[in-house]
Amino acid sequence: MKRNEFIKISGLAGISLAIFPHFSFKDFSEEFTRNQLLGKGNPDIIGDTYTSKMNKTTKEAFNKMKAAAAKDNIKIEVVSSYRSFQRQKEIFERKYKQFTSQGLSPEKAIDKIIEYSTIPGTSRHHWGTDLDIIDANAPRPANVLMPENFHGNGPYCDFKVWLNENAEKFNFYEVYTDNGNRKGFKYEPWHFSYAPVSIPMLKEYEEKIDVKKMLSEEKLMGNEHFSDEFISKYVKENIMDINPKLLP
User: Fold this and answer.
1) How many domains does one find in the chain?
2) What domain range is 241 assigned to?
3) Residues 224, 185: contact at Cβ < 8 Å?
4) Whole-number Å distance between alpha carbons of 198 and 237
5) What is the model's pLDDT at position 11?
6) Are 164 and 192 in contact (CB under 8 A)?
7) How far apart are CA 137 and CA 140, in angstroms?
8) Residue 66 contacts by C-beta under 8 Å, 6 or more apart in sequence?
């Protein structure tokens, strides 16, 4: 499908969702390159900083959601958006060195890292469709990305209520939900994904990327400890066990 056709269809999909809640994005697809899927280069990414870089259609939708939130005295702040392969590799390897130097085995260190952080080449942030967001109008805690900040008496609990009621109107969906049966990454009430682009990207990722082969080729620190069993479990639980509304 040509890019301009996809953009037109995405716009129609947004309208259709507003009119027909049962409407699904799963019928739409676009061809993406390996580099786009792995965060190694994407002509559709716009923005200058790690908090402003996004897929261009994601940014358009985000700006509409941000404007709507502002009317309710909520100032949506992006803490993290597009993240390149190299940046994710730096994060992963820094944590790997830290945890192994503290005495954890390589396997235990990797398990600890993937409680919240993805392995390079497998991050949804590589696509420019996923955002970590908070309310800049609320009191800022020392560590903003903590689940307790979004519930109870947390500073972002009102923001979470707003997102629950409004995010899907703009086609943004929580990725790692608070579902006791869900495995993989822990609950992230701050992480939202723009479905019209992330769904087809996940579909093509499944079809095009051999995760074990990719990680071996990239010479990632600790990759010799990625067994076939580990990779299979990681793909099933960390990549695919997400909000069902975001699955192809």
Assistant:
1) 1
2) 3-246
3) no
4) 18
5) 46
6) no
7) 8
8) 76
Residue 152: CATH number of its domain? 3.30.1380.10
Q: Which residues of the chain have pLDDT under 70?
A: 1-30
| Residue 146 CA: distances (Å) to CA of 122, 149, 219 | 22, 6, 31
Do strands 172-174 and 130-135 pair parallel, antiparallel, or not at all (unpaired)? unpaired
State the residue for tokens 């790997």: 96
Beta-carbon contacts of 181 under 8 Å, excluding residues fewer than 6 positions away, are none
| Whole-number pLDDT of residue 219 | 86
| Angle of CA points 230, 232, 233, to nearest 5° | 65
- CA 184, distance to chain mean position in Å, is 13
Predicted local distance difference test score (pLDDT) of residue 30 = 61
With tokens 């469709």, the residue in question is 129
SS3 of the chain: CCHHHHHHHHHHHHHHHHHCCCCCHHHCCCCCCHHHHHCCCCCCEECCCCCCCEEHHHHHHHHHHHHHHHCCCCCEEEEECCCCHHHHHHHHHHHHHHHHHCCCCHHHHHHHHCCCCCCCCCCHHHHCCEEEEEECCCCCCCCCCCHHHHCCCCCCHHHHHHHHHHHHHHCEEECCCCCCCCCCCCCCCCEEEEHHHHHHHHHHHHHHCCHHHHHHHCCCCCHHHCCHHHHHHHHHHHHCCCCHHHCC
Three-point CA angle 128, 140, 180, nearest 5°: 65
Bridging pattern class, strands 76-80 and 130-135: antiparallel
Please answer whether residues 172 and 61 qualify as being in contact, where contact means their C-beta atoms are separated by less than 8 angstroms: yes
